[in-house]
Amino acid sequence: MSYRRTLKLICGLAGGSAAVVFAAAAADSRGYFGERQGEAGSRWSRFTVLRAAQPAWTPASHTPAPTGHSWDFNWDKRDPSALSNGKKKENPAEDPTSEQDNGKPKATRNILLIRHSQYNLSGNSDKERILTPLGREQAELTGKRLAELGLKYDVLIHSSMARATETANIISKHLPGVELLSCDLLREGAPIEPVPPVTHWKPDAVQYHEDGARIEAAFRRYIHRADPKQKEDSYEIIVCHANVIRYFVCRALQFPPEGWLRMGLNNGSITWLTIRPSGRVALRTLGDTGFMPPDKLTRT
After folding, report:
1. Which end of the chain is more exposed for a tag (fewer CB within 10 A), N or C?
2. Side-chain half-sphere of 283: how many Cα atoms within 13 Å?
3. DSSP string over the chain
C-alpha cells in the first residue's frame, strides 16, 4: 500500500490531532520533510514542534479550576444557624423548628448605590466643591431614572459631603415621600491600598488606616441581609462616592477588596446590589449610566 493511501486511511479512521502527529512522524521517518541523511537532529526537532502544536485536550483543561475560598454564607454575621448556636430556649415546650423559622430572614434587600454628580474640582474646601451645571443635569437624569424604575423606595441615605448631599437633594425631588438621611461614614476616602498600585494617587498610610476603618464601618452598617422582622423586600438608595461604592462591591461579592480601583464609575451612575435572605449577593448593575445621553457622561 502506498504511503499516501496509508496516510489517508489513518486520518479517516482515527481522525483528530493524534492521527496528524502519527502521520507526521511516519512522513519524517521517510524523509518527506526534505532533509538529507545525517540531519536526524533537525528531523526530531521538527517532530517536537509538531507535537507541541497539538493541544493536550482533556475535559478538565476546558474548565478553569476554582480558585480562592468558598462562599462564606455568614459574611455579615447574621446567618440564623450561627446566631442560634449556644442559645437556650426560654420556653421548653416551644417547638424548636418554629423558633428557627421565625429567626430566618425572609425578605430581600436591594441597595442602589449612586455616585454623586460632577462637581467643582477647583474648590479649596468641601463646601466649595459643589455640583457643576452639568452635574446638576446628571442628578436630574439619575432622579428621573430611579423614579421610572417604579420601585417602592424605603429610604435615601447620602454622604454628608457637599457634592453627595446636593446630588441626593436633586434626586429626592423625583422621589416624593422617601425619607432623606445623611451619614458621615459614607464620606469619600481611601478604603485600602489598591493592587496594583497607581502612581498618580498615593495617600499616606495613616489615611488608609483612618478612612479604611470608617468605610468598613459603613459597609457593615448598610450592606447585610434583611432583619428577620422584615416581611417585604426593600429598596434603599445610598448616594456616596466612587471609592466607597467600589469597595462595597468588592466586599459584598467577597472579591479581594484591594482590587477596588480596577473598576471605573461615571458620575450619577447606578450600582445595584441584591442581598438574599440566605446571604447570597448578586450585582445587578455596576455603574449604569445608559439612561444618560453620551454628551452628559463624565467621571470626574
Report:
1. N
2. 17
3. --HHHHHHHHHHHT-HHHHHHHHHHHHHHTTTT---TT-HHHHHHHHHHHHHHS----GGGGSPPP-SPPP-TTTTS--HHHHTTT---SSTTS-HHHHHHHTS----EEEEEEE---B-TT-SSGGG-PBPHHHHHHHHHHHHHHHHTT----EEEEESSHHHHHHHHHHHTTSTT-EEEEEGGGS----S--SS--SS----HHHHHHHHHHHHHHHHHHSSPPPTT--S-EEEEEEE-HHHHHHHHHHHTT--GGGGGG----TT-EEEEEE-TTS-EEEEEEEE-TTS-GGG----
Q: Is 17 exposed, middle or buried (0-12, 13-18, 19+ CB in 10 A)?
A: middle
Residue 31 in this model has a pLDDT that exceeds 80: no
Q: Is the pLDDT of residue 193 over 70?
A: yes
Q: Which amino acid is at 50?
A: L
- pLDDT above 70 covers a percentage of the chain that reads 72
CA diameter of the chain: 95
8 Å CB contact between 156 and 178: yes
Beta-strand relationship, 270-275 and 109-115: antiparallel
Does a cis peptide bond (omega within 30 degrees of 0) precede residue 196?
yes
